[in-house]
Amino acid sequence: MFGCDKISYLTPIVPAVAASDVVKKSSEILTSITLIKLLEGAAIVLVAYLLIVASERFNNWLSEKMPRRFRLIVRQGLPFWRAAVILAAVISLMKLFLHLSPNNILALTGTISLALGFAFKDYARSLIAGVVALFEVPYRMGDRVQIGEHYGPVVSYGLRGIRLRTPTDNIVTIPHNKIWTDPISNANDGALEAQVVTDFYLAHNVDIDRVMKILYQAAYTSQYTQLKLPIMVMIDENPWATHFMLKCYPIDARDEFIYKTDLLKRSKETFRKYGIAYPSVPAGFEEG
Record keywords: Metal-binding included (predicted)? Predict the structure, then answer.
C-alpha cells in the first residue's frame, strides 16, 4: 500500500518538471527577437528568393547560348544551385535566431525531426527523396521520363517534386517520393538525343519490303533526324494487323513530338501514293 501511495504522490511532479525543462531549453536555444532581427530575416528570405529566380533565368538563358551538346549539362546544374541557396538561407536564419551550440543543434534537430515525422510526414518524405534523387539521378532537368501515366520532359526540379510538360502541353507536378514506389522510365538519361518510336499498323498482305523502305526513307529525309545514330524498322504481328515500329533519334530531344508528327505525315502520304492498305479492326476486338 505504501508503495502505491508513494507513486501516486510522485507522478504529478513529472509533468511540471518536464514543462519547465522545455521552457528552459527553448530560452537557451532562441535568441532575443527584435524588430531589426525580423527585418534581417525578411531580407534573407527575399534575397534567397531573388537569387533562385535569377539563377533559373540565367540558367535558361545560358543553356540556350551554349553549344547544343552542352545545353542539358547546364540545365542539370540548376537543382544544385537552388539547393545551395536554400541551404545558405536556412543556415543564416538559424544563426540569426538561434544559439547554435552543439547541444542546441542536437536538441533542435531532434525536435524538427519529430515535428516533421508527425505533422508533415508526406512532405518530409518528398524532401528526403528529393535529396536522394540529386545523387541517385533517376531523372534530371531536360530528361524525358514516364512516371505512372504521365510522360514528358522535366521542365522544373524543386526540393519537393518535379514538373513534367506532357504532349498536350499540360504541366504535371509529381512529388519526389514516387521514386520509392513507382517505376521511372527515362528515355534519354541525360543525353541530348532520345529515341522516338513511331507505330504503324498495316494490313497483313502489304508489301513488307516496300513498307520498310518507305519508313527508312521518311526517317533519313526528315530535317529532325540525327543521322549519326541508327535508324531501325521492327516488325511485330498482331491478330488484326502487321505492326511496324520505326525507331530513330531526333537531333534534339525537345523536338520529339513534332518529329513524330513529321514521320507520320510523310509516311502516310507515301502509303497513300502506293495504295498501301490499313487493316479493318474486327467489331468488338480489343488489342491485349
Answer: no
* Amino acid at position 88, single letter: A
pLDDT of residue 33: 76
Q: How many CB atoms lie within 10 A of CB 86?
A: 16
Which architecture does CATH list for 144-186? Roll (2.30)
Instruction: Using the predicted structure, report yes or no on whether residue 17 has a pLDDT greater than 60.
Output: no
Residues 203-251: tens digit of each pLDDT:
988 999 999 999 999 999 999 999 989 999 999 988 889 999 999 999 8
Domain locations in the chain? 2-136, 144-186, 196-273
CA distance 5 to 113: 38
| Structural fold of domain 196-273 | Alpha-Beta Plaits (3.30.70)
Spatial contact of 138 and 184, defined as CB atoms under 8 Å apart:
yes
Rounded distance between C-alpha atoms, residue 201 and residue 245, angstroms? 9
